[in-house]
Design a protein that fits this description.
With 124 residues, the chain is an alpha/beta fold. It has one domain: Oxidized Rhodanese, domain 1, CATH 3.40.250.10. Helices cover 23% and strands 18% of the residues. The strands form two sheets. A five-stranded parallel β-sheet has the order 1-6-5-2-4. Helix 3 links the parallel strand 5 and strand 6. It is globular, with a radius of gyration of 15 Å. The protein starts with 25 loop residues before the first strand and ends with a strand. InterPro entries: Rhodanese-like_dom, Rhodanese-like_dom_sf. Pfam families: Rhodanese (PF00581). This is Rhodanese.
């Protein structure tokens, strides 16, 4: 790659903008506003059951059953997802959602980083 050039986004466009269909995959915890987007908790079933906390307004979706719920998600709204630490679960769910045309991103570091950044949680 030549100096000064940026890599192409996955959509293949050479000039990514806010309208680019492949926006960034992550959102930093301090920038999370659960009131401005759909929020889905995609922690594995055991992790979700073991915790008594959830981001206000979030809905739990079983990542192992994504085929059952992916088709019901809106393509016109921003979707934010999180797992425990923002690792493999969030990555795989974002891959599937973006491939289906959902404008999805995940919280870097998951719910743990969100709480560490001062994000509010509620008892579920």
């Amino acid at each position: 790659m030549e100096p000064g050039t940026q890599p192409l986004k996955r959509c293949g466009c050479g000039t990514p903008t806010e309208k680019c269909p492949d926006l960034p995959r992550t959102i930093v915890p301090a920038d999370v506003n659960p009131d401005a987007t759909l929020v889905f908790d995609v922690r594995r079933e055991a992790d979700f059951a073991a915790s008594n906390e959830i981001i206000p307004g979030a809905m739990w979706k079983n990542p192992d059953k994504i085929d059952a719920w992916i088709g019901a998600l809106p393509l016109t709204l921003d979707v934010m997802i999180y797992c425990v630490r923002g690792g493999g679960v969030s990555n795989s769910v974002v891959d599937r959602l973006q491939a289906a045309g959902v404008k999805a991103r995940y919280i870097e570091g998951g719910i743990e980083a969100y709480k560490a950044a001062g994000g509010k949680v509620v008892t579920k």
